[in-house]
């Protein structure tokens, strides 16, 4: 039959065998590529041909999802909610009510392409999830995670078995029993990728709760998958004529695992050995690993396993981190997690039809089952967590996190829907339950767990309240070796002696690549980092500093491997645990020896801004230009630009500690307004006068202290004097925050490109400044109160 082009060409063939038996075949001729829009109807170009129609479908699904996410993320709802709602809008529940529009946009013959893309995306999503996981983490987790993890899986499993037997006898019809059993089994899964994604959405992956949730989820995932696979093989044996089928399936599964372990893992290690240190693996290696993923999927499907298990086990066999794991995640993550994997969720949402519900009795049973399974999971997590001395609120948040549902459960529901274990009504209710649980879980965890509350009451951790003859605790952060060298120069000027020692806690920040677990490595415990020679150089710089000031300086070094958006949690938590008085952060801009700017990192800037907002102590951002200065100097000239306020007082307090060393020459320049009644409040003026009085008294007894005042009318005069200081000092210290009505800074705020530095610090950190002066911008501790 040849038609006018509006529908695919369909041809019928009849083949007659010698035995006079005729077999009929139907061949569909799909038109894939459009010849173009010239001289044709644009609508026909998109809707008549498969490829343009697929591109339009993807663009429409992506646009609706992103639009919903931009709106709903303001209410702290995860991306999964937007993806499911986009499916509801574009699917049978809403758009599908108009058969004319829905039939043109999503015709039945075109569904195979979206279905195929979504499954490919999910396969690689599961593979990358396995790559990011480190099975050795299970062996390193503490008894708390093991206790919670095992009980979390075992208790719901027994509870699910009890409910299955009860419903099987009294409440569920025989033909509905397979659907009910599969619902209970899927509800009792604890997929690690879902938990990791939720922690990223909530921005608590690096918190104490997040680390416990990741460790527990990894144990739960492995134990539940083992139990689920064993039950599946048992069912296969029950369905066959003998138990030989179960033995055969188990044997093939073991062969698949052995193939991955003795073929896939050696190939991955060979790729790593042939890659130079510090370099990503070659493109051909990424292609070969992708091909191996597809081969393993084919084998998994033919041995009787769900197609996701093969890629997941292969991902576990690939060594996480650089170079192979990091390169695979870097090359594939954006496409897979950004487009293809969410496509499965949206496509499942499109299959939902909330407008047609008939068997309300069984749908009630479905919701009762979901509620019962969820209740058992929550109790099974909350109880052991409380017994392991997890606080009640944190235990409740942990229960909500581990019992959350996401794309993994969605894939199992869709698999049963395609196999007709679930009808459309059941599938619609299960998909809706994922939507509701994802939304409510995120909101409740956001309400129950606020990481910043741990700093409440953490007061007077600053330099002003630290006596000169007591230990000064400083946390230094570094991304590069240059950052450590710059921090060492500041620490040397901090006058470490046996009478006033300095305790240095150095954290080397490494971006997490190819891993899902953030790591905090304590080098005092003999733990080694995978950062390579760069991390070792950073460790050596501060180790030699400790030897230089033996007895006056103690150094403890850490390596924090984390995602960029969560690094500030590691910094603030470490400062809190070590009772630090000051955090020194490296500036996000770097200069070379000639004074030319070579780096301007927005990600490093965001880390600094987050630390300033969250820090439990005072914070200083170090703008390092000392590499420009020629030769070594016997004295270190420090200038303090004092305008008044708590941040300026903190900067001056640090400078007063430095000036105890005769090698440091301090000049305090106080900028005074012509209007003596303008500016700071009366209380601030009293505090300013007190600390300046102490400085003036010191200047009468010490030759290395100079105090002077400069009267200025506005910010323009201030800028001229500050620029004059650039030539005279090695280091200029300024406070970050000042009152908006400060006359001395009038007009400077309008040109402030970097608010985290304040108006004066921003002026001194200008990228085109060629002077070799370094700048330390100080923010006094932000006191957090109980809300």
Automatic annotation (TrEMBL):
It comes from the Eukaryota. GO terms for biological process: potassium ion transport. GO terms for cellular component: membrane. Gene3D superfamilies: 1.20.1530.20, 3.40.50.12370. Its main location: membrane. Residues 503-626 form the Cation/H(+) antiporter central domain. Keywords: Ion transport, Membrane, Potassium, Potassium transport, Transmembrane, Transmembrane helix, Transport. The chain crosses the membrane at residues 112-131, 143-163, 212-231, 243-263, 284-309, 360-383, 395-414, 426-445. InterPro entries: Cation/H_exchanger_TM, CHX17_2nd, CHX17_C, CPA2_transporter, Na+/solute_symporter_sf. Residues 67-446 form the Cation/H+ exchanger transmembrane domain. It is a multi-pass membrane protein. Residues 637-781 form the Cation/H(+) antiporter C-terminal domain. It is found in: Membrane. Belongs to the monovalent cation:proton antiporter 2 (CPA2) transporter (TC 2.A.37) family. CHX (TC 2.A.37.4) subfamily. This is Cation/H+ exchanger domain-containing protein. It comes from Penstemon smallii.
């Amino acid at each position: 039959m040849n038609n006018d082009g509006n529908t695919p060409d369909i041809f019928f063939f009849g083949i007659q065998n010698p035995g006079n038996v005729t077999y009929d075949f139907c061949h569909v001729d799909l038109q894939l590529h459009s010849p173009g829009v010239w001289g044709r109807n644009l609508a026909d170009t998109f809707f008549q041909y498969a490829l343009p129609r697929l591109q339009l479908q993807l663009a429409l699904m992506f646009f609706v999802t992103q639009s919903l996410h931009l709106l709903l993320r303001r209410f702290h709802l995860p991306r999964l909610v937007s993806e499911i709602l986009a499916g509801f809008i574009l699917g049978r529940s809403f758009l599908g009510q108009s058969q004319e529009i829905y039939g043109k946009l999503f015709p039945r013959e075109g569904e195979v392409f979206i279905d195929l893309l979504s499954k490919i995306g999910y396969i690689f999503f599961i593979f990358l999830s396995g790559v990011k996981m480190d099975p050795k983490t299970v062996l390193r987790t503490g008894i708390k995670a093991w206790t919670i993890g095992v009980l979390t899986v075992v208790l719901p499993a027994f509870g699910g078995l009890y409910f299955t037997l009860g419903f099987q006898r009294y409440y569920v019809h025989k033909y509905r029993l397979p659907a009910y059993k599969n619902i209970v089994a899927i509800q009792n899964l604890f997929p690690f990728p879902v938990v990791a994604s939720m922690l990223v959405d909530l921005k608590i992956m690096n918190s104490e709760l997040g680390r416990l949730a990741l460790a527990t989820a990894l144990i739960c995932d492995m134990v539940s998958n083992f139990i689920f696979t064993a039950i599946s093989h048992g069912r296969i044996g029950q369905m066959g004529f003998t138990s030989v089928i179960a033995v055969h399936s188990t044997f093939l599964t073991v062969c698949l695992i052995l193939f991955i372990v003795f073929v896939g893992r050696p190939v991955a290690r060979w790729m790593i050995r042939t890659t130079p240190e510090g370099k990503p693996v070659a493109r051909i290696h990424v292609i070969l690993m992708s091909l191996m993923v597809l081969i393993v999927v084919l084998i998994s499907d033919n041995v009787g396993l769900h197609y996701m298990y093969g890629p997941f086990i292969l991902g576990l066999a690939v060594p996480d981190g650089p170079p192979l794991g990091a390169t695979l995640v870097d090359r594939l993550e954006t496409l897979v997690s950004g487009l293809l994997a969410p496509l499965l969720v949206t496509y499942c949402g499109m299959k939902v039809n909330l407008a047609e519900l008939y068997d309300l009795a069984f749908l009630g049973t479905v919701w009762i089952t979901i509620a019962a399974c969820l209740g058992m999971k929550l109790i099974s997590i909350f109880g052991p967590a409380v017994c392991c001395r997890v606080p009640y609120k944190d235990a409740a948040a942990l229960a909500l996190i581990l019992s959350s549902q996401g794309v993994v459960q969605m894939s199992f529901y869709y698999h049963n829907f395609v196999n007709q274990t679930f009808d459309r009504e059941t599938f619609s209710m299960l998909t809706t339950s994922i939507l509701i649980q994802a939304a409510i879980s995120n909101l409740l965890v956001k309400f129950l767990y606020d990481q910043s509350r741990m700093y409440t009451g953490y007061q007077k951790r600053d330099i002003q309240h630290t006596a000169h003859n007591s230990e000064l605790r400083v946390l230094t952060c570094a991304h590069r070796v240059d950052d450590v060298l710059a921090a060492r120069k500041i620490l040397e000027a901090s006058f470490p002696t046996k009478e006033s020692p300095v305790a240095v806690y150095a954290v080397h920040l490494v971006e997490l690549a190819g891993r899902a677990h953030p790591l905090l490595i304590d080098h005092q415990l003999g733990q080694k980092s995978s950062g390579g020679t760069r991390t070792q150089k950073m460790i050596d710089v501060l180790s030699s500093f400790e030897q230089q000031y033996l007895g006056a300086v103690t150094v403890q070094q850490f390596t924090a491997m984390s995602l960029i958006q969560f690094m500030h949690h590691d910094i603030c938590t470490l400062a809190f645990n070590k009772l630090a008085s000051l955090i020194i952060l490296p500036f996000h801009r770097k200069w070379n020896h000639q004074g030319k700017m070579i780096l301007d990192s927005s990600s490093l800037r965001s880390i600094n801004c987050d630390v300033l907002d969250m820090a439990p102590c005072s914070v200083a951002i170090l703008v390092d230009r000392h590499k420009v200065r020629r030769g070594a100097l016997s004295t270190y000239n420090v200038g303090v630009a004092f305008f008044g306020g708590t941040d300026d007082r903190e900067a001056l307090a640090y400078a007063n500690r430095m000036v105890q060393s005769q090698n440091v020459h301090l000049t305090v320049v106080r900028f005074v307004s012509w209007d003596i009644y303008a500016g700071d409040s009366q209380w601030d003026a009293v505090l300013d006068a007190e600390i300046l009085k102490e400085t003036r008294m010191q200047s009468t007894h010490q030759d290395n202290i100079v105090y002077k005042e400069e009267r200025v009318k506005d910010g323009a005069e201030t800028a001229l004097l500050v620029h004059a200081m650039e030539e005279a000092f090695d280091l200029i210290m300024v406070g970050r925050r000042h009152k908006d009505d400060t006359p001395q800074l009038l007009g400077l705020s309008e040109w402030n490109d970097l608010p985290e530095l304040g108006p004066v610090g921003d002026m001194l950190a200008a990228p085109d400044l060629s002077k070799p002066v370094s700048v330390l911008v100080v923010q006094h501790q932000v006191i957090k109160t109980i809300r």
